[in-house]
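Tokens for chain A. Residues wanted.
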């Protein structure tokens, strides 16, 4: 009984660790639950200055990041990558095969982040074939110091994001924790609109436009009427002036 109790406590502590903190990025407009409070946040950690994002450091040893996330906004061209939630399966499968055949990834999988939102998770290759002299032939194999896991997905506002896991130990446990964090990702720039409220707003805007157009027409009619009255008054004044001139 005591052993069962301790096991339950350990599981509860593990769950609490996975969802220990909610991190909110005001700079890039997103939030997600992270295992622990970040020790540091590094802006635009990539050498590619065209990329926008930040690195959350959870554990480090000097300048070496032992555990962290790299979150990138506008991570991919929306026209070049299928919509994992809307496109046909054969289009998505073809894209996954393309990634697999690129040589950059050891493994590529399709996963549900949340109900209705799917992502691709790619594991970088530990060994990469290299052409050292540029003659188009493979000269050897380069072994990476560490493996990385990268998730690509869209948020409801059709914004393109990637979240990269940095961890000295990539195994089922660390990847599951990574997926748990991804499932809590929220794009704070997206405001969900209630369909009924949206339709009511559209009807209200359409009525306001019709009222404006009606008011403009009425204003134009009044202006035309005033112009006619003014013209009549001027003609009448001319006739009276002509009569007065004859009498003289």
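Reply:
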């Amino acid at each position: 009984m005591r052993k069962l109790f301790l096991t339950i406590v350990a599981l509860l502590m593990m769950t609490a660790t996975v969802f220990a903190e909610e991190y909110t990025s005001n700079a890039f407009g997103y939030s997600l639950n992270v295992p622990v409070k970040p020790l540091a946040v590094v802006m635009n950690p990539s050498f590619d200055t065209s990329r926008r994002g930040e690195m959350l450091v959870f554990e480090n040893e000097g300048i070496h990041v032992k555990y962290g996330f790299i979150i990138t906004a506008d991570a991919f061209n929306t026209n070049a990558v299928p919509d994992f939630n809307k496109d046909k399966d054969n289009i998505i499968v073809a894209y996954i095969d393309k990634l697999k055949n690129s040589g950059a990834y050891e493994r590529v999988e399709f996963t549900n982040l949340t109900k209705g939102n799917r992502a691709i998770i790619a594991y970088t290759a530990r060994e990469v074939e290299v052409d050292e002299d540029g003659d188009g032939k493979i000269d050897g194999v380069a072994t990476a110091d560490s493996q990385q896991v990268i998730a690509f997905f869209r948020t409801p506002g059709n914004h393109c994001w990637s979240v990269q896991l940095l961890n000295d130990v990539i195994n089922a446990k660390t990847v599951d924790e990574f997926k748990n964090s991804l499932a809590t990702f929220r794009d704070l720039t997206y405001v969900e609109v209630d369909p009924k409220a949206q339709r009511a707003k559209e009807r209200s805007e359409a009525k306001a436009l019709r009222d404006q157009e009606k008011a403009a027409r009425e204003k134009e009619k009044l202006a035309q009427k005033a112009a006619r009255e003014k013209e009549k008054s001027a003609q009448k004044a001319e006739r009276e002036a002509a009569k007065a001139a004859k009498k003289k």
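Residues 1-19 have pLDDT under 50 and may be disordered. The longest helix spans residues 195-247.
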